[in-house]
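re: that chain from earlier
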Amino acid sequence: QVQLVESGGGLVQPGGSLKLSCTASGFTVSNSVMRWYRQAPGKEREYVALIGAAGAVSNYADSVKGRFTISRDNAKNTVYLQMDSLKPEDTAVYYCYLQTRRLWGQGTQVTVSS
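^ sequence. v structure.
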């Protein structure tokens, strides 16, 4: 089955960290740019970060630059999002996205609250 599966979300206090994973099954993502998006309650889905196929190129939304780090392990067919210095406004469902297949994962909930 062709799918992307996110994991690693949860409840964390402000200033804390989480690491999200996105694992592909049924196909390889090693030659593909991968993206993370997020959607907060009542808001549009917004871009968070992308990483090039070899992992040498990355880009971040201004709202997360300097706090989030995207990475990948092509041997594991997995992309990661390390989130540090989390803020309440980072609360959202986080999705990974493969544009070449227009394929979204099911999302993982991140809640930042004291």
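The two ends are 39 Å apart (CA to CA).
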